[in-house]
Design goal:
Elements lengths: L1 H13 L3 E5 L2 H4 L18 H4 L2 H6 L1 H16 L5 H12 L3 E4 L5 H4 L6 E2 L2 E8 L3 E4 L2 E2 L19 E5 L8 H10 L4 E5 L11 H7 L3 E6 L11 E4 L2 H9 L3
Parallel strand pairs: 1-2, 1-8, 2-3, 8-9, 9-10
Antiparallel strand pairs: 4-6, 4-7
The structure holds 2'-O-acetyl adenosine-5-diphosphoribose.
Length: 244
């Protein structure tokens, strides 16, 4: 483990272009439930059964109740050491940060140029797109009414997050793909099963980047990266930065 940390740390030290892809594991130490961990379960539902347009059409109340539960949990959470290190790298080293997390803890830690590939749980948009796709911010906890209504057309509103079966925003895909042209690509705290995010590490590697994974356990990305470090992001990331 120490050797792996030293290797990745040296690569980071010498890199001019660093890209970091993060997933729910980065926020786990803050108390945010991951999607595929046991704590991610809400009632008897798996995220894949709720985070879809079909689920929303079938039962908007149920989907909103799940998001209201997640918002309530996240509202009480603070960024942890992993968010802090990543934020410092974005400011001091120009590291590009791509996140699948919708909790905004990277932003609260002061990350610059963050690409929120799956949107933000604190933003809402009109289901009927009555004024286009532009979301609005609503961080009220609890929300006064479920399901949430669009203030313009009074039809249904939805969380402004990307659901399974939906396309990511073009500008986010573009930014993410551009960021794979880098010297070091870190994939941190993600199960690496949801595309297109999961494919970015291979793309970076194909372009010559040194790639590393930081995760509590092996994932499908582990065999693809140059170095896999298995441990908590909130401990490993400070250890990496501490050697610069
Ligand atoms: P997952 O819940 O699938 O995976 C979290 C990963 O973090 C797992 O591989 C854990 O082993 C790891 N992990 C947990 N605690 C950790 C810690 N302290 N340090 C390091 N690693 C830790 O979450 P994501 O990979 O983010 O998408 O999920 C990807 C997407 O699937 C989400 O953005 C969401 C979800 O459904 C949508 O909603 C579209």
């Amino acid at each position: 483990m120490d050797e792996a940390i030293a290797t990745v740390s040296a690569r980071l030290r010498n890199a001019s272009r660093i890209t970091i892809l993060t997933g729910a594991g980065v926020s786990a130490a803050s108390g945010v439930p991951t999607f595929r961990g046991a704590d991610g379960l809400w009632r008897e539902y798996r995220p894949e059964e709720l985070a879809t347009p079909e689920a929303f059409v079938r039962d908007p109340q149920l989907v909103w109740e799940w998001y209201a539960w997640r918002r309530e949990k996240i509202a009480g959470c603070q960024p942890n050491a992993a968010h802090d290190v990543i934020a410092a790298w974005s400011r001091e080293r120009g590291a590009r940060v791509l996140t699948q997390n919708v909790d905004d803890l990277h932003l609260r830690a002061g990350t610059e140029g963050l690409v929120r590939m799956h949107g933000s749980i604190w933003e809402i948009s009109c289901w009927n797109e009555c004024r286009g796709l532009a979301p609005w911010r609503d961080a009220r906890v609890p929300l006064p009414e479920l399901p949430v209504r669009c203030p313009h057309c009074h039809g249904l509103a939805r969380p402004a997050v990307v659901w399974f079966g939906e396309a990511l925003r073009d500008e986010d895909v573009l930014a993410a793909v551009e960021a794979t042209a880098c010297d070091v690509f870190l994939t941190v705290g993600t199960s690496a099963v949801v595309y297109p995010a999961a494919g970015l590490v291979q793309r970076a590697k194909a372009q010559g980047a040194f790639t590393a994974e930081i995760n509590l356990e092996p994932t499908p990305a582990s065999s693809a990266v140059d170095v896999a470090i298995h441990g908590p992001a909130e401990d490993i990331l400070p250890a990496l930065g501490g050697r610069w």
